[in-house]
Amino acid sequence: MQTTRHTLVLTAGQPSGWVRDLECQAWSIATALPTHELRRTLDANVLTCVVVDFTHGFDNDAHAALERLLALPNVGAVGLVAPGQLEDPPVRHLAVDHCFDVLSMPASPAQLTLSIAYAFDMLESRMHERDIDGNLLLRAGLKGGHQVHAEGSMIGSCEAMVALFRSIRKVARTDAPVFISGESGTGKELTAREIHERSARRNRPFVAINCGAIPPHLLQSELFGYERGAFTGANQRKIGRVEAATGGTLFLDEIGDLPFESQASLLRFLQEKKLERVGGNQLHDIDVRIIAATHIDMPAAIESGRFRADLFHRLCVLRIDEPPLRARGTDIELLARRMLDRYRSDSQRMVRGFAPDAIAALYTYPWPGNVRELINRVRRAIVMSDRPFITADDLDLGDYADRSTVSLAEAREEADRDVIQMALLRNRGSLSKAAIDLRISRVTLTRLLRARGMSAADFRSSRDAR
Ligand SMILES: Nc1ncnc2c1ncn2[C@@H]1O[C@H](COP(=O)(O)OP(=O)(O)OP(=O)(O)O)[C@@H](O)[C@H]1O
Ligand SMILES: [Mg+2]
Domain tally for the chain? Predict the structure, then answer.
């Protein structure tokens, strides 16, 4: 684990006043340009913040060497520039593309300290980024959004996502049907594609059908195709989507919206692995792997008779649940920064990061539209923002920026209350039984309840009271 931190100031001239003082804080200052020796001093096991003082200028060779140095995975940079210096393309390129933060001089030592702390935070958060294979991206020597992930690949490092990645790898090894459930925008389609890409079928087609978007009367022929003359206008045979996926994966998206009348023929196909084109009289063997997904509550759909239970059981042999974005902890910020990296070039201006109120809003907003909504808000903010740091207002989340914070004591109190309530509910208001569950005495439980204005009687149901 890389935990040691080192700060290095690089300058082509004499560091001015307070920058020189930084040496007293055990930071090192190098007036030499980043030569091979310097590179060697940047130990790969140490997180290094390089403060690049552009104010004295660097020559072209130095620029090239700097670029290589700043691209090292364990290096995070803060640039110091003189007013107007960012108009110089080589400086702008290094400062904007390679520095986590840029300070216009004269800046205060406090500002620099903050920027350095930010650079270390960014380096650390990138250290924990994993790709779907569980590789630590930074350790693998990869840094920077677009360089790391191909468009569309999954990002996540929270426990729920690591578990999801594990499930993807496991189910990819089999041919059994997979059912993916999750709120809208959580990444169900992306997951289906990852399963396909990781399976032995990866070189065969991945065919996605949105079961809710095709009119019911066309669904049959869309899925199974038709023979010439099957109906007016059927001038030639058409292969259906199921057949088009032969050898590969058929992704039945929004399966919960599949019209009831089409469910029987899909079930038949799943049972027999044979299809009959509309207007045809021959059965064709088809080898496809089925992945289905929906955002609707399937047990409720089955209960209300909108979805056949037997079809659901055929589809749901292996199950994957996509965690909602609000349950992904710091992944929310990780994704936001990734999307900023990916789309920052949409703006003519330099958008460097998120202001603290935007970060607060990212964590308090409940994200009903999940990752898709996050992407849309960040993209919009990149275009709308006229400052270097995206604010909560730019994300259109101003109302979520000023939520009062919760102290540890408040959080603990809330947790205590929840646990006590659960124990009382489970034991229908019995103090003695709840106290045993909570492994405290009955007297202590009574005291805790009194302190919170709670009463065990509230947890006795009317039937028990009788
Ligand atoms: N973990 C992730 N990392 C990176 N991008 C993601 C991740 N999850 C989702 N996305 C992106 O979010 C968007 C929505 O994902 P996707 O279409 O797979 O969601 P969905 O669950 O199928 O949504 P819907 O229910 O609305 O169809 C896509 O642009 C996808 O690339
Ligand atoms: Mg989808």
Answer: 4
User: How far apart are the C-alpha atoms of 126 and 115, rounded to whole Å?
Assistant: 16
Q: Closest residue (by CA) to atom 2 of ligand 1?
A: 154
Cα gap 166→419, rounded to integer Å: 31
Task: Determine if ligand 1 sits within 6 Å of the CB of residue 73.
Answer: no
At residue 396's C-alpha, the angle toward residues 392 and 397, to 5°, is: 55
In a domain, 135, yes or no: no
Q: 376: exposed, middle or buried (C-beta count within 10 Å: 0-12, 13-18, 19+)? A: middle
* DSSP code, position 241: H
264-318 pLDDT, tens digit each: 989 999 999 998 888 888 888 999 999 999 999 999 999 999 999 999 999 999 9
Q: Do 350 and 437 fall into the same domain?
A: no
Q: Is the CB of 75 under 6 A from ligand 1?
A: no
* 261 and 182 co-located in one domain: yes
Rg (CA), the chain: 29
pLDDT at 32 over 60: no
Nearest CA among 369, 394, 364 for reference residue 379: 394
Nearest to 13 by CA among 27, 32, 28: 32
Q: Is residue 312 part of a domain?
A: yes
In 12-46, the DSSP E strands lie at: 28-30
Cβ-contact 22, 53 below 8 angstroms: no
Which pLDDT tens digit goes with each residue over 305-346? 999 999 999 999 999 999 999 998 888 998 999 899 889 888
Residue 371 contacts residue 187 (beta carbons within 8 Å): yes
Residues of the domain holding 382: 326-400
3-state secondary structure of 294: strand
Q: Which of 329, 321, 334 is closest to 167 using CA atoms? A: 321
| CB 320 within 8 Å of CB 179 | yes
Give residue 112's identity as a one-letter amino acid code.
Answer: L
Residue of 151, 190, 297 with the most ligand 1 atoms within 8 Å of its CB, for mutation: 190
Q: Which has the closest alpha carbon to 327: 439, 161, 174?
A: 161
Q: Tell me, what CATH number does 38's domain have?
A: 3.40.50.2300
Q: Does residue 139 lie within any of the structural domains?
A: no
Q: Is residue 133 part of a domain?
A: no
Is the same domain home to 189 and 72? no
Whether 288 and 235 share a structural domain? yes
> What ligand 1 atom has the least distance to the C-alpha of 182?
21
Q: Check whether residue 294 and residue 263 sit in a common domain.
A: yes
In order, the DSSP letters of 350-380 are ---EE-HHHHHHHHHS--TTHHHHHHHHHHH
In short, whether 372's Cβ falls inside 6 Å of ligand 1 is: yes
